[in-house]
What we know:
The structure holds two protein chains of two kinds. Chain A is 30% helix and 24% strand. Chain A is an alpha/beta fold. Chain B has helices at residues 54-61, 84-91, 111-121, 127-140, 157-169, 187-204, 215-221, 239-244, 249-256, 322-326, and strands spanning 6-19, 26-39, 43-47, 69-74, 77-78, 94-97, 175-179, 207-212, 224-229, 232-238, 309-312, 315-317. In chain B, a hairpin with a 6-residue loop joins strand 1 and strand 2. The radius of gyration of chain B is 21 Å and the shape is globular. Chain B is of the alpha/beta class. The A-B interface holds A 42-43, 156-159, 186-192, 194-195, 213-220, 239-240, 243-244, 253-255, 257-259, 261, 263-264, 266, 268-273, 275-276 and B 49-50, 156, 158-159, 186-192, 194-195, 198, 213, 215-217, 219-220, 240, 243-244, 253-254, 256-265, 268, 271, 273-275, 277-278.
Amino acid sequence: MSKILEVKNLRTTFFTHLGEVQAVRGISFDLDEGGILGIVGESGSGKSVTSLSIMGLVDDPGRIVEGEILFEGTDLTKLDQREMTKFRGNEISMIFQDPMTSINPAFTVGNQLREVIMAHSDLNKEQAHERALELLRMVGIPDPESRIKNYPYQFSGGMRQRALIAMAIANNPKLLIADEPTTALDVTIQAQILELMRDLKDKIQSSIILITHDLGVISEICDKVIVMYGGMIMEKADINSLFANPQHPYTRGLLLSIPTNVTGKKKRLVPIEGSPPDLMDPPSGCPFSPRCPHAMEICLKKAAPLFKISETQEASCWLHHKDAPEVKGFVKVEGDLS
Amino acid sequence: MSERIPLLEVKNLKKHFISGILKKRKVLTAVDGISFVIYKGETFGLVGESGCGKTTIGRTIIRLYNPTEGEVFFDGDEIGQMSERELKPYRKRMQMIFQDPYASLNGRMTVTDIIAEGIDTHHLLEGDEKQERIYELLEKVGLKREHASRYPHEFSGGQRQRIGIARALAVNPELIICDEPISALDVSIQAQVVNMLEDLQDEFGLTYLFIAHDLSMVRHISDRIGVMYLGKMMEITTADELYENALHPYTKSLLSAIPIPDPTSSIRDRRVILKGDVGSPINPKPGCRFASRCRFAKPNCFTDTPELREINEGHFASCHYIEEINGI
């Protein structure tokens, strides 16, 4: 399978007056054509900044300080704003978290849809209108002929998210980045939107990056996952390996801290003690080491490389090193680096 | 639960908000005739989607809102219509933990001032005793003595929620209304707070009304659960019974919509995806509130409002066709 996106050693930092916030600290991953990659992490893990970096939307005082983002071979970090505009909204598009604020309240839905369509095609106004209707129908908005004249406030939250998805897919993007697309929605609406995204992916044949904090959403829709923490990648795996056999203590901690549907007696939750790292002054070693139950001396000094556990799974944890003490469930890997 | 003594009883509670006048008058029926009981020492979970009225119920019970109709009994006394003066002793016995740990703490007050506010209002302790009590509370919720003189902005979301919990505990309440206390927190922090709430419940014999939309967490923490939809109670039963044997069509679809953190789960194939959006609580139509989205709806569902009835022992549901749907 060919790669549509390759991110190499990406480092994005915000130079604030209080100091440097190292939001993304040297991450590398790639996305297969037609794949759905999930990026999961808590607030401050760097997942959203990763997506903004790909979109070229990192604003002052933030800057990509290192690394490459290869989209079908083109390094997006080298493009200026004008060249980037050709990609953004066309080849690569994005769905944001909050459907209430990421849509302009002063224009009708149809107006905004037409704008997106006409910005990247030669269609005239009428053709764009037809295309807009088609898109609204595709995302399941009932009675699109009258709805297209509505202003965003006349839409419910779920419908606004549908309208935003319509805008995102308007130009058949090859890559669709969805940043917490269902977080602001109720659970029954979330189920509708996830189903819609699965449907659309087949229809428009795009690849998707889905960013979320919810492991449940990941397991619903993704085929591969990256687990981020403190601006770094902790684990990379296909979803079956990740959920069946997590190989990083953080992933394990996350899975243990959500209640499972075991019947009968109430089981006590196993939380991860402590709180996430301060990105102004991140720990010099593994970002998770201050909270990790297995932390060793080396973890505090030096972050582990990604150890290759299997063909489908990599984890950045020293426990996989051949000299590390035996911890149940963690696989030892020959050699140092993946 | 050997002896079940009701601590809080809500009877036919209604809370309507009115906007506009004359022809433009609109009535928003946030809570429309809800009845339930919370027994001493238990956790009653209240779930539902946004706009279903769950938060309004919490706020009406604690009298941040005055009820439009209906009664609220706290330990046998009707508090829904009491004057502020009559209510004061009861205020000490009910406390609330809010959803947003950033908005619910006054940024200009120190942690000591925040926690002491209730103690001062009720003239419980003074001077050194008060300070000692604040230290003790901070330690109870997993913070340190040194934190007492700091301001809220110096804390993370999880720590702020702990301060909010310490504030609620300060007056030794019997009932704590937890309004989405963990929804604003990160997954790894949620479990910390939930465990702490459980420990505090054991230690002080607290009763919780736990309002949330995260169904898996609600199941974990609750003994019994009520499911709301557009101001009406759809189903009430024990936590396990609800998840194993939900009777109401709305509860069923709500449960089946929960994303499951297990890619091999077979539940996905049996999923019922609800069509449409939650309706409007403004000038609602007669009949069952869920009828327009219900796949079992029949003509009389749109005209007759179903009553909450006991279907099995301790298992209540409001649907005309519950027996038919579930083959009872």
